[in-house]
Amino acid sequence: MEANAVAATGCGSPAERLERGEVLYYPTAPFPLPQGDDLDFLLQQELGSLNHKNISYNPHNGKVNGFVRKNAEQVERLRNIFDRFSKAATEWLTQLLPQYSQGWQLDRASFRPQEEATRRLRAKARNDLIHVDAFPGRPSRGNRILRVFANINPREPRIWVTSDPFAKLLKRYGEAAGLPGRNRTRWLAHLGQGILGLFRPHVARRSEYDLFMLRFHDYLKLNEEFQEKGPKYLHTFPPGSVWVAMTDTCSHAVLRGRYALEHSYFVSPVVLALPEESPPVLLQKACAASGRRAA
Ligand code: SIN
Ligand code: FE
């Protein structure tokens, strides 16, 4: 593995870099993170059950899930900390990526209290296997997945490894993972629905695109050759740092670290800087090419 290397060209606008699969890294947090008593309080919170991978916050209704509930005061405090984090992260991202803020939908925020190096999860849920993201419970329907992370561990870094971006992985493994069905009319119709349902990802059903992305996520995690021999770039995110990635394009895994905050956003294809390079369009092209070859 290339130690402390970043698969980054540093060329282009922040949106272009994100859409090409780079990680944007900020050694010092560019927006306020929980501190003092609030930070101590957050670090004491425990994951509620094995059904929850993280403690999550829904900014649309203020609900916090997945933690060990002790009393009403604790719940209120946790909600307030998440609310401040969600607002601060969103305000900063609005300045960094003004065009995205015209067409995004806030998804969930989360707190990640578990040590990733020693977690025991079933293979498809493992965070230490390289993958591109697809959320099983929250289909993106052709919207992009943008995520901002903050390492709030006071002492330890969070360690990530990234590999090739979606465009390359699709070329290499798309057919083997199972491109959307030979019935291309159905696939195109579903893609259309995805675009109509842009601002309702929470009520939307899974489109053919979502089904493929879930399949691809699982395929990459279970592909030993890719996990062992694929290119790897190591990222060390020290305490207090922040990083941003489009995790449906930037393949990634977390190897080590505990106590991170994260916020996800669904970004509409209409506000992308490089719409022709987005996964739904690349996938559509791959299907068309595969259909031509098969015909
Ligand atoms: C993931 O989306 O794979 C998790 C990344 C992290 O928790 O750092
Ligand atoms: Fe992921």
Describe the protein's architecture and organization:
Helices cover 36% and strands 20% of the residues. It is an alpha+beta fold. It has one domain: Jelly Rolls, CATH 2.60.120. The strands form two sheets. The chain has a seven-stranded antiparallel beta sheet. The chain has a three-stranded antiparallel beta sheet with strand order 7-6-9. β2 and β3 form a beta hairpin. Fe (iii) ion binds at residues 131, 133, 247, 252.
Summing up helix and strand content along with how strands pair, one would put the structural category as: alpha+beta
CATH class: Mainly Beta
Question: How many DSSP H or I helices?
Answer: 9
Which overall shape is indicated by the principal axes computed on the Cα atoms? globular
In what range is the share of β-strand residues? 15-25%
In the sheet with the most strands, the strands line up as 1-8-5-10-4-2-3
**SSE order, one letter for each helix or strand:** HEHEEHHEEEHHHHEEEEH
Mean pLDDT: 90
The CATH architecture can be named as: Sandwich
Through-space gap between termini = 41 Å
Bin the helical content: 25-40%
**Into how many domains do the coordinates divide?**
1
